Amino acid sequence: MRVLGIGNYCDLAALYLRLSAEGHEVKVFIDAPLCQNILNGMIAKTNDWRSELQWVKSAGGEGIILFENVSCGGLQDALRKDGFNVIGGSAFGDRLEIDRAYAQSLLAELGLSTAATHHFSIRQDGLRFLRERPGRYVLKFNAPELAHRNFVGGLGDGRDISALLQNLPDSPADAAGFVLMDFIDGVEMGVGAYFDGEKFLRPACLDWEHKRFFPGERTRPSSLRKLWQRSSLCSGVTATAAM
Question: What's the pLDDT band for 211 if we cut at 50, 70, 90?
Fold first, then answer.
């Protein structure tokens, strides 16, 4: 195969190394300047992934473009229409991931039980909501670049989330808005599987995110997931992606 990997941080470094070791041709585009030295001397790189499209296309059915990040779904749809084999997401998949209130509404329509989700476009509206309806909430931003700000509230009156909203620096990505979700105690479970364009392939991958993991049973959201990802990279295990 001939594989062109595209991402911000080269999160799939272990996958690229495995593919290369198995004899496949691999080129990687890394967008973030601080990460562009990853895999130096180990994998071929490109500073302009678009200039490599003909390289991929010349491989015919053996050419694959792999996107690591969410938010490029529309571009991936366009590449598929142009005849490229693309592994990653789609415009619809991006909306499910980024527009959290929309995704929750779809789950509810399908009959699944969901946490109450309240969408806000500006912070002041969210702060007013917290004053009028104090409670324990989970704060999630819709913009992928603000995901590191997501926060699971620990106080029953929402004062911690209110303080966070009041003190976060402004960002152009704030325009995407955020949601406050009712806090539900328990262990988060995820189900993932490859999709070949017609059906999901078995077996599915089940994962659990137990937030109470570190001393004092406290940890940041997704810390356990990140720990798993790092250990996976070290052991050569790779995460699944939807085609």
Answer: low
Read off the DSSP letter of residue 47.
S
Q: Under CATH, which number does the domain 99-182 receive?
A: 3.30.1490
CA distance 8 to 3: 16
How many whole angstroms separate alpha carbon 76 and alpha carbon 24?
Answer: 22
What pairs with residue 117 in β-bridges?
181
How far apart are the C-alpha atoms of 220 and 150, rounded to whole Å? 9
Domain positions in the chain: 1-92, 99-182
Q: What is the pLDDT of residue 233?
A: 36
Instruction: Report the b/e string of 160-195 with b at 16+ CB within 10 A.
Output: bbbeebeeeeeeeebebbbbbbebeeeeeeeeeeee
Q: What is the pLDDT of residues 41-76, one digit of tens each?
A: 999 999 999 999 999 999 999 999 999 988 899 999
What pLDDT, in 10s, does the model give residues 171-205? 888 888 999 999 988 877 888 888 887 999 999 99
Closest C-alpha among 227, 228, 221, 224 to residue 140: 221
> In the numeric block, which tokens belong to residue 126?
């969210």
Residue 147 token pair: 């995901």
Give the pLDDT score at 219. 53
Q: Decide if domain 1-92 falls under CATH 3.90.79.10.
A: no
Residues 6+ apart with CB under 8 A from 25: 1, 2, 3, 59
